[in-house]
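re: ur question from yesterday

yeah so i grabbed the chain u mentioned. its 113 aa long if i counted rite. heres the sequnce exactly as i have it in my notes:
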Amino acid sequence: MFRKLKYKNLLTACVRRSASRHNIKIIELDVQPEHVHCVVGVSFTMFVSKTLQLLKGGSSKLFFEFHKKARLRYSKGHLWSRGKFASSVGFVQLDVVRNYVRNQSEHHGNSTL
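ran it thru and got these structure tokens back, copy pasting raw so excuse formatting
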């Protein structure tokens, strides 16, 4: 679904809005057709699982609100799969990780329509 530019842009906006509602700073974000890469900054008091819940749940809710026909494709309301990966990044590695996320479209050979 996220091969089309309008859906990719909508999902990007939904993730960013969900993050801002919960004081999660999006440092880098790249939406691919089947997955998302995101570098975020959160307070030390927020658990990784809570951060993922807020981003995935919040962005999914917003996406379905703005794109009602998506419910036909995702009838059970699950935009995201259960899978996830999270890792902490030190300041020394931050630029490397940001470049990795920025270059995902080139890496995967994806273009948007």
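noticed a couple things. The two ends are 11 Å apart (CA to CA). also The CA atoms of residues 62 and 68 lie 10 Å apart.
anyway ttyl
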